[in-house]
Specification:
four-stranded mixed β-sheet; six-stranded mixed β-sheet; globular; 20% helix
Protein backbone atom coordinates (compact mmCIF):
# COMPACT_ATOMS: atom_id res chain seq x y z
CA UNK A 1 0.00 0.00 0.00
CA UNK A 2 1.01 3.59 -0.40
CA UNK A 3 2.35 3.87 3.17
CA UNK A 4 4.47 0.71 2.88
CA UNK A 5 7.87 2.31 2.28
CA UNK A 6 10.10 -0.14 4.20
CA UNK A 7 13.08 -0.02 4.72
CA UNK A 8 12.43 3.74 4.77
CA UNK A 9 10.68 5.23 7.79
CA UNK A 10 8.46 8.28 8.19
CA UNK A 11 9.06 10.57 11.16
CA UNK A 12 6.10 12.94 11.51
CA UNK A 13 7.15 14.35 14.90
CA UNK A 14 6.38 18.06 15.13
CA UNK A 15 9.53 20.10 15.72
CA UNK A 16 9.43 23.91 15.31
CA UNK A 17 13.23 24.10 15.69
CA UNK A 18 13.90 22.30 12.40
CA UNK A 19 15.10 24.68 9.70
CA UNK A 20 15.88 24.20 6.07
CA UNK A 21 19.28 23.35 4.63
CA UNK A 22 20.50 23.49 1.05
CA UNK A 23 19.87 19.80 0.35
CA UNK A 24 16.50 19.46 2.05
CA UNK A 25 13.53 18.66 -0.17
CA UNK A 26 10.86 21.20 -1.06
CA UNK A 27 7.30 20.15 -1.73
CA UNK A 28 5.84 22.89 -3.91
CA UNK A 29 2.12 22.13 -4.00
CA UNK A 30 -0.72 24.17 -5.43
CA UNK A 31 -4.26 23.12 -6.37
CA UNK A 32 -3.37 19.43 -6.24
CA UNK A 33 -0.26 19.82 -8.38
CA UNK A 34 3.29 19.07 -7.23
CA UNK A 35 6.53 20.43 -8.65
CA UNK A 36 8.77 17.63 -9.97
CA UNK A 37 11.67 17.31 -12.39
CA UNK A 38 10.08 16.92 -15.80
CA UNK A 39 12.56 14.63 -17.55
CA UNK A 40 12.74 12.24 -14.58
CA UNK A 41 8.94 12.18 -14.40
CA UNK A 42 8.90 10.98 -17.99
CA UNK A 43 11.26 8.19 -16.86
CA UNK A 44 8.77 7.18 -14.12
CA UNK A 45 10.80 8.69 -11.31
CA UNK A 46 9.72 11.41 -8.88
CA UNK A 47 12.44 14.00 -8.21
CA UNK A 48 11.57 17.02 -6.06
CA UNK A 49 13.43 20.35 -6.01
CA UNK A 50 15.87 21.07 -3.19
CA UNK A 51 15.84 24.18 -1.04
CA UNK A 52 18.90 25.49 -2.86
CA UNK A 53 16.96 25.40 -6.15
CA UNK A 54 14.62 28.19 -4.99
CA UNK A 55 16.68 29.79 -2.22
CA UNK A 56 16.57 33.23 -3.86
CA UNK A 57 12.78 33.20 -3.56
CA UNK A 58 12.67 32.10 0.08
CA UNK A 59 15.84 33.85 1.25
CA UNK A 60 16.46 36.84 -1.06
CA UNK A 61 20.16 37.60 -1.35
CA UNK A 62 21.25 34.37 0.36
CA UNK A 63 23.24 31.88 -1.68
CA UNK A 64 23.99 29.34 1.06
CA UNK A 65 20.95 28.52 3.20
CA UNK A 66 23.13 26.48 5.56
CA UNK A 67 24.71 29.74 6.76
CA UNK A 68 21.43 31.41 7.75
CA UNK A 69 21.31 31.97 11.53
CA UNK A 70 17.74 31.19 12.53
CA UNK A 71 16.37 32.42 15.88
CA UNK A 72 14.97 29.85 18.27
CA UNK A 73 11.24 29.58 18.93
CA UNK A 74 11.80 30.83 22.48
CA UNK A 75 13.21 34.10 21.06
CA UNK A 76 9.76 35.31 20.06
CA UNK A 77 6.27 34.32 18.98
CA UNK A 78 6.47 32.56 15.64
CA UNK A 79 9.84 34.24 15.07
CA UNK A 80 11.48 31.27 13.39
CA UNK A 81 8.66 31.13 10.87
CA UNK A 82 8.75 34.87 10.17
CA UNK A 83 12.49 34.69 9.53
CA UNK A 84 11.73 32.50 6.55
CA UNK A 85 9.07 34.87 5.26
CA UNK A 86 6.49 32.28 6.37
CA UNK A 87 7.15 30.55 3.08
CA UNK A 88 8.81 27.37 4.39
CA UNK A 89 7.07 24.93 6.68
CA UNK A 90 8.77 21.80 8.03
CA UNK A 91 6.48 18.83 7.42
CA UNK A 92 8.25 15.56 8.25
CA UNK A 93 11.32 13.51 7.49
CA UNK A 94 11.82 10.16 5.82
CA UNK A 95 14.97 8.57 7.17
CA UNK A 96 17.43 11.50 7.31
CA UNK A 97 15.77 13.49 4.54
CA UNK A 98 13.76 16.52 5.68
CA UNK A 99 10.73 17.70 3.72
CA UNK A 100 9.51 21.30 3.72
CA UNK A 101 6.40 22.85 2.23
CA UNK A 102 6.89 25.97 0.14
CA UNK A 103 3.83 27.94 1.18
CA UNK A 104 3.57 30.03 -1.96
CA UNK A 105 2.94 29.35 -5.62
CA UNK A 106 5.91 29.80 -7.91
CA UNK A 107 5.34 32.04 -10.89
CA UNK A 108 6.42 30.74 -14.28
CA UNK A 109 9.66 32.72 -14.14
CA UNK A 110 10.49 31.37 -10.67
CA UNK A 111 10.18 27.67 -11.46
CA UNK A 112 13.63 26.04 -11.60
CA UNK A 113 14.76 24.95 -15.06
CA UNK A 114 13.60 21.44 -15.92
CA UNK A 115 10.77 21.36 -13.37
CA UNK A 116 7.01 21.42 -13.91
CA UNK A 117 3.83 21.13 -11.85
CA UNK A 118 2.25 17.66 -12.20
CA UNK A 119 -1.18 16.55 -10.98
CA UNK A 120 -0.79 14.45 -7.82
CA UNK A 121 -3.29 11.90 -9.10
CA UNK A 122 -1.17 11.19 -12.16
CA UNK A 123 1.71 10.11 -9.91
CA UNK A 124 -0.46 7.33 -8.51
CA UNK A 125 -2.13 6.41 -11.78
CA UNK A 126 1.19 6.00 -13.55
CA UNK A 127 2.70 4.05 -10.66
CA UNK A 128 5.66 6.40 -10.48
CA UNK A 129 8.23 5.93 -7.71
CA UNK A 130 10.27 5.53 -5.67
CA UNK A 131 7.68 4.52 -3.08
CA UNK A 132 8.94 6.85 -0.35
CA UNK A 133 8.78 9.84 -2.71
CA UNK A 134 5.22 9.01 -3.73
CA UNK A 135 4.16 8.66 -0.10
CA UNK A 136 5.87 11.96 0.70
CA UNK A 137 3.97 13.67 -2.12
CA UNK A 138 0.60 12.33 -0.94
CA UNK A 139 1.25 13.12 2.72
CA UNK A 140 2.63 16.55 1.87
CA UNK A 141 -0.49 17.32 -0.13
CA UNK A 142 -2.61 16.36 2.89
CA UNK A 143 -0.86 18.96 5.04
CA UNK A 144 -0.71 21.55 2.24
CA UNK A 145 -4.48 21.30 1.78
CA UNK A 146 -5.02 21.80 5.50
CA UNK A 147 -2.70 24.80 5.78
CA UNK A 148 -4.41 26.38 2.75
CA UNK A 149 -7.88 25.90 4.26
CA UNK A 150 -6.98 27.01 7.80
CA UNK A 151 -5.64 30.51 7.24
CA UNK A 152 -8.60 32.11 9.00
CA UNK A 153 -10.58 31.12 12.08
CA UNK A 154 -13.82 29.29 11.43
CA UNK A 155 -15.25 30.69 14.67
CA UNK A 156 -14.50 34.42 14.49
CA UNK A 157 -12.83 34.96 11.11
CA UNK A 158 -9.51 36.29 12.38
CA UNK A 159 -6.10 35.21 11.12
CA UNK A 160 -4.71 31.88 12.32
CA UNK A 161 -1.05 31.46 13.26
CA UNK A 162 1.09 28.36 13.60
CA UNK A 163 1.34 26.87 17.07
CA UNK A 164 4.86 26.60 18.47
CA UNK A 165 3.94 23.58 20.61
CA UNK A 166 2.16 21.20 18.24
CA UNK A 167 1.00 20.78 14.66
CA UNK A 168 -1.97 23.10 14.97
CA UNK A 169 -3.28 26.50 13.89
CA UNK A 170 -4.33 28.95 16.60
CA UNK A 171 -6.59 31.99 16.25
CA UNK A 172 -4.89 35.23 17.34
CA UNK A 173 -8.21 36.64 18.58
CA UNK A 174 -10.31 33.91 20.22
CA UNK A 175 -7.55 31.28 20.59
CA UNK A 176 -9.55 28.58 18.84
CA UNK A 177 -7.21 25.71 17.91
CA UNK A 178 -7.53 23.67 14.72
CA UNK A 179 -5.74 20.40 14.04
CA UNK A 180 -5.05 18.66 10.70
CA UNK A 181 -8.20 17.46 9.03
CA UNK A 182 -8.34 13.65 9.00
CA UNK A 183 -11.66 12.14 7.91
CA UNK A 184 -12.48 8.52 8.86
CA UNK A 185 -13.96 6.30 6.16
CA UNK A 186 -14.53 2.58 5.63
CA UNK A 187 -13.60 0.20 2.82
CA UNK A 188 -15.85 -2.87 2.89
CA UNK A 189 -15.24 -6.28 1.41
CA UNK A 190 -18.68 -7.95 1.43
CA UNK A 191 -18.34 -11.70 0.94
CA UNK A 192 -20.89 -14.21 -0.30
CA UNK A 193 -19.18 -17.59 -0.21
CA UNK A 194 -16.56 -17.49 -2.97
CA UNK A 195 -17.91 -14.19 -4.30
CA UNK A 196 -17.05 -10.61 -3.42
CA UNK A 197 -19.23 -7.54 -3.94
CA UNK A 198 -17.37 -5.49 -6.56
CA UNK A 199 -18.42 -1.94 -7.45
CA UNK A 200 -17.46 0.77 -9.91
CA UNK A 201 -18.19 4.46 -9.46
CA UNK A 202 -20.39 6.28 -11.92
CA UNK A 203 -17.90 9.11 -12.27
CA UNK A 204 -14.20 9.61 -11.59
CA UNK A 205 -12.25 6.49 -10.61
CA UNK A 206 -12.92 3.90 -13.31
CA UNK A 207 -11.40 0.71 -11.88
CA UNK A 208 -12.96 -1.98 -9.72
CA UNK A 209 -13.63 -0.93 -6.14
CA UNK A 210 -15.39 -2.02 -2.97
CA UNK A 211 -18.22 -0.43 -1.01
CA UNK A 212 -16.81 2.65 0.72
CA UNK A 213 -17.98 5.73 2.58
CA UNK A 214 -17.43 8.20 5.40
CA UNK A 215 -18.57 7.67 8.95
CA UNK A 216 -21.41 9.89 10.17
CA UNK A 217 -21.91 11.68 13.47
CA UNK A 218 -22.71 9.27 16.31
CA UNK A 219 -21.83 6.11 14.37
CA UNK A 220 -19.44 3.35 15.23
CA UNK A 221 -17.28 2.15 12.35
CA UNK A 222 -19.25 -1.10 12.30
CA UNK A 223 -22.49 0.85 11.92
CA UNK A 224 -20.89 2.79 9.08
CA UNK A 225 -20.14 -0.53 7.37
CA UNK A 226 -23.76 -1.66 7.68
CA UNK A 227 -25.18 1.66 6.48
CA UNK A 228 -22.85 2.09 3.51
CA UNK A 229 -23.46 -1.44 2.23
CA UNK A 230 -27.21 -0.95 2.54
CA UNK A 231 -27.09 2.44 0.80
CA UNK A 232 -24.90 1.34 -2.10
CA UNK A 233 -26.03 -2.25 -2.63
CA UNK A 234 -29.22 -2.79 -0.62
CA UNK A 235 -28.01 -5.85 1.29
CA UNK A 236 -27.61 -6.60 4.98
CA UNK A 237 -24.32 -7.82 6.43
CA UNK A 238 -23.10 -9.71 9.48
CA UNK A 239 -19.85 -10.97 11.02
CA UNK A 240 -18.10 -7.61 10.54
CA UNK A 241 -14.35 -7.96 11.13
CA UNK A 242 -11.60 -5.36 11.02
CA UNK A 243 -8.74 -5.91 8.58
CA UNK A 244 -6.32 -2.97 8.33
CA UNK A 245 -6.10 0.82 8.04
CA UNK A 246 -4.46 3.23 5.60
CA UNK A 247 -3.70 6.96 5.58
CA UNK A 248 -4.96 8.41 2.31
CA UNK A 249 -3.67 11.95 2.08
CA UNK A 250 -5.06 12.51 -1.41
CA UNK A 251 -8.51 12.97 0.13
CA UNK A 252 -7.46 13.79 3.72
CA UNK A 253 -8.78 10.40 4.88
CA UNK A 254 -7.90 7.63 7.26
CA UNK A 255 -9.35 4.46 5.75
CA UNK A 256 -10.40 1.46 7.83
CA UNK A 257 -10.86 -1.83 6.01
CA UNK A 258 -13.48 -4.39 7.04
CA UNK A 259 -14.63 -7.73 5.71
CA UNK A 260 -18.18 -8.91 6.38
CA UNK A 261 -20.62 -11.55 5.15
CA UNK A 262 -23.94 -11.06 3.38
CA UNK A 263 -26.83 -11.65 5.77
CA UNK A 264 -29.80 -13.32 4.10
CA UNK A 265 -31.06 -12.13 0.71
CA UNK A 266 -28.10 -11.45 -1.61
CA UNK A 267 -30.05 -9.59 -4.31
CA UNK A 268 -28.33 -6.29 -5.08
CA UNK A 269 -30.28 -3.02 -5.24
CA UNK A 270 -27.60 -0.69 -6.58
CA UNK A 271 -27.49 3.04 -5.88
CA UNK A 272 -27.42 4.12 -9.52
CA UNK A 273 -26.64 7.74 -8.67
CA UNK A 274 -23.29 6.81 -7.12
CA UNK A 275 -22.45 3.54 -8.88
CA UNK A 276 -22.58 2.23 -12.43
CA UNK A 277 -21.77 -1.36 -11.44
CA UNK A 278 -22.32 -3.58 -8.39
CA UNK A 279 -22.12 -7.35 -8.77
CA UNK A 280 -21.09 -10.50 -6.95
CA UNK A 281 -17.84 -11.61 -8.59
CA UNK A 282 -16.19 -15.01 -8.08
CA UNK A 283 -12.74 -14.73 -6.57
CA UNK A 284 -11.02 -16.18 -9.65
CA UNK A 285 -12.67 -13.55 -11.88
CA UNK A 286 -11.78 -10.45 -9.84
CA UNK A 287 -9.84 -7.88 -11.86
CA UNK A 288 -7.50 -5.91 -9.62
CA UNK A 289 -6.59 -2.25 -9.85
CA UNK A 290 -3.43 -1.47 -11.88
CA UNK A 291 -1.47 -0.18 -8.86
CA UNK A 292 -0.59 -1.68 -5.48
CA UNK A 293 -1.22 1.53 -3.55
CA UNK A 294 -4.74 1.23 -2.15
CA UNK A 295 -6.29 -0.63 0.75
CA UNK A 296 -9.16 -1.48 -1.60
CA UNK A 297 -6.86 -3.28 -4.02
CA UNK A 298 -5.10 -5.19 -1.24
CA UNK A 299 -8.43 -6.39 0.15
CA UNK A 300 -9.60 -7.52 -3.29
CA UNK A 301 -6.27 -9.26 -3.86
CA UNK A 302 -6.41 -11.12 -0.55
CA UNK A 303 -9.90 -12.37 -1.33
CA UNK A 304 -8.87 -13.39 -4.84
CA UNK A 305 -6.03 -15.43 -3.31
CA UNK A 306 -8.26 -16.92 -0.60
CA UNK A 307 -6.44 -15.06 2.19
CA UNK A 308 -9.23 -12.84 3.53
CA UNK A 309 -9.83 -12.86 7.28
Amino acid sequence: MIQDIYPHKLNNHFDPEVHAGNEDILLCITEGKILVQECRFEDNEIVFPRVKDVSEIVFPGVKDVNKVAFPKVKDGADSCMKSEGEKLRYLFSIDETKYFLLDTMLESGEIPAGYAYVDERSLRKEGIGPDDHLFAAITGKHLADWYRDTRFCGRCGHRMIHSKKERAMVCEACHYTAYPRIMPAVIVGVTNGDKLLITRYRTGFRYNALVAGFTEIGETMEETVQREVMEEAGVRVKNIRYYKSQPWGSANDILLGFYCDVDGDDRIYMDSEELKYAEWVHRKDIVLQPGEFSLTNEMMKRFKEGKEI
